[in-house]
């Protein structure tokens, strides 16, 4: 009989997060430094939104200019706050949710990451990359 593994076994627990009062330059720096595509936005440990690298690209020229050219991004980033750009209607899952259920959610929805929340507290994040790596290990 096959065991149903919980998402906690594949989620990232070392969470890189933003706070609502951080700026978009900080967000871009975190995306690039950690080579990630999704960052939860938190108020203390409670998730209030999710910012994706795609959200940032929609309002800027983040990768369209030379990596030393920061004037364009800075100007655009100063026009918006993280709260204005982040997704606010967040779907989350508890850490005991099955990997299968998480895969079904991500396959049906238009996002590629889910925050993992237990008792209102952000405890991890699971992405489509985590799922693909899990599936590769199964083969």
TrEMBL record:
InterPro entries: CBS_dom, CBS_dom_sf, Diverse_CBS-Domain. Keywords: CBS domain. SMART domains: CBS. Pfam families: CBS. It comes from the Bacteria. Residues 11-67, 86-139 form the CBS domain. This is CBS domain-containing protein.
